[in-house]
Amino acid sequence: MTESDHIPPRGEHAVVAWINDWGGVVVDALIAVGDFTLFVWQTLVWLSTRLPRRETLLPNFYQVGVLSLPVVALTGTFIGMVLAVQSHFQFSQIGLETRLGAVINMSLVRELGPVLAATMLAGRVGSAMAAELGTMRVTEQIDALESMGAHPLHYLVVPRFLACLFLIPTLTIMADFMGVVGAYFYSVFILGIDRHFYLYNSREFVGGFDLFVGVFKSLFFGAAIAMVSCYRGFHCLPGAEGVGRAATAAVVISFVLILMIDLFLGILLDNIYYAFWPAGARLF
Amino acid sequence: MVDLQRDDPLASPLLRVEDLHVTFGQQPVLRGITLDVPRGQTLAIIGESGCGKTVLLKAMIGLVRPHRGRVLFDDQELARLNDRDLSTQRLRFGFVFQNAALFDSMTVGQNVAFPLRQLGVARQADIPPAVLARLAEVGLPDEVVTKKPAELSGGMRKRVGIARASVVNPEMMLYDEPTTGLDPIMSDVINELIMRARHRHAVTSVVVTHDMRTARKVADRVVMVYPLARLRSGEPQVIFDGPPSELDRTRDRRVRQFVQGEAGERIMEMRQAVAANGRGGE
């Protein structure tokens, strides 16, 4: 028997290499998920151990809340008007223009308001958090914090997490409000829909539970944005390229997570709603 | 320079590194490092870039976890301490980072005040005078207090880094490449500050450097670490341990080569690597 008898044929080599590659990808993904879970757990432990100081909390609250308000308000207004433009033609074909108020406002408070506020927050604040923490990692500022007896999770992550968690409901309500106002103005003053029926249908079909659903979901979006962005910043690769990649990854992963959480929470909350109110409000 | 502690066999070392192994992924960086740093001593760790001297320094304060072996500070093993105790112990250290690692979101004053606030004993009113005094000690005027680190020169940032690290009067100062990237005059200023910190505050120091002027000027003892990749298995990674005056008398070719700054066989190795790459590309 010669040595060449032991060498697997070329096809077999390719299959082994393919399995090896995919095995590596799966193992890496599992390690990343485990690492992220540990990161979230440690942050929650620090959060429950002791609250950060006021001087570390306030700048983060200002950055996340106050500075995000204008952009969220502006995009909220436009999305409300866009909804009116897009749905008016379809509804006018079947003579149901006055139902626009119900459709637009329901879409806004349940879905578009919270998702829009979250995507704006991920784009504006999530990327900045990842880039800032990534730069701190690369320039040894996180090591410097540790060397001076401060725990980076407690000092850097907990305030950002709290800021996102507590202020995203406010941003969501702002996006909802501006969207409702924008849609009302466009529908009533430009499209000429009857004001009374527009408001009547809005009141009839959009209830407190819908508003609650949107705000409740936003809490999870805010937590996801903060944790993903901080995690990516903390695990930033060296150099400017590493910081750039961390910021991009933070935004992309946050977007995907926002939509996934939106779907699953949407299904869950709908089931809860119809379990309690089987004859819930129907549009048609 | 007088080394009181080295002559006293009863004095326990402030810091002890025992059989330290550090690995990053599959890449071993430190292997079997053992050394003591007696109280009051200034130890310089020298070695070429990438030999693991910064990793060794970070392991001394618990910023890098050992794969094997242990680091004992004042007879306490750092890796066994919980987060709270480790944070408390770290306030007994002052760490000067290679590029100062000042927090760029804070002013110079807030940077220097950070360890004081972290220590939690200083009253708010005591902080500004302490900060100004420490900045004055490193030769910086009061006006820098309100500046951001980005507005400072490299030498000033380094001095702010020293002021921040020493503001709580730590028992041990760790300096990572304190003179790298500075002009000769500023390098000497930093050397003087290291020596002054030792004399004024009786601090124990470890200085990681590849600047031989710094090593000779500030250190009582020099340890040379050699890159693992250039060692055969079983060879010790610490290839020199002695007073600076011994550096010129050593017979070890690797130490002499580093001290005298000679490329030696490295040029030939680089040519061979280029030639091998060229053949590989054909």
Reconstruct the topology from this structure.
The complex is a heterodimer of chains A (about 280) and B (about 280).
Chain A: H1 10-49, H2 54-66, H3 69-93, H4 100-138, H5 141-147, H6 152-190, H7 195-205, H8 208-234, H9 239-276
Chain B: E1 15-24, E2 27-37, E3 42-46, H1 53-60, E4 68-73, E5 76-77, H2 83-90, E6 93-96, H3 108-119, H4 127-137, H5 154-166, E7 172-176, H6 184-201, E8 204-209, H7 212-218, E9 221-225, E10 238-242, H8 253-259, H9 265-281
Parallel strand pairs in B: 3-8, 3-9, 6-7, 7-8
Antiparallel strand pairs in B: 1-2, 1-4, 4-5, 9-10
Strand content of chain B: 15-25%
Mean pLDDT reading of chain A: 89
Order of helices and strands of chain A: HHHHHHHHH
- Quaternary structure: heterodimer
Largest interface: A-B, 16 and 23 residues
Average pLDDT over all residues of chain B: 86
| Relative strand content of chain A | under 5%
User: Which term fits the overall shape of chain B?
Assistant: globular
Regions with little confidence, pLDDT below 50 for 5+ residues of chain B: 1-7
Structural class of chain A: mainly alpha
Major sheet of chain B: size, sense and barrel closure? 6 strands, mixed
Number of strands of chain A: 0
CA radius of gyration of chain B is 20 Å
Report on this structure.
The complex is a heterodimer of chains A (284) and B (282). The mean pLDDT of chain A is 89. Helix content of chain A is 84%, strand content 0%. Chain A has helices spanning 10-49, 54-66, 69-93, 100-138, 141-147, 152-190, 195-205, 208-234, 239-276. The longest helix of chain A has 40 residues, at 10-49. Chain A contains nine helices and no strands. Chain A folds into two domains: 10-49; 55-276, no CATH class. With 284 residues, chain A is mostly helical. Chain B has helices at 53-60, 83-90, 108-119, 127-137, 154-166, 184-201, 212-218, 253-259, 265-281; strands at residues 15-24, 27-37, 42-46, 68-73, 76-77, 93-96, 172-176, 204-209, 221-225, 238-242. Chain B has a single domain, classed as Rossmann fold, CATH 3.40.50. Chain B is globular. Chain B is 36% helix and 21% strand. Chain B is of the alpha/beta class. Chain B starts with 14 loop residues before the first strand and ends with a helix. The chains are: A mainly alpha (284), B alpha/beta (282).
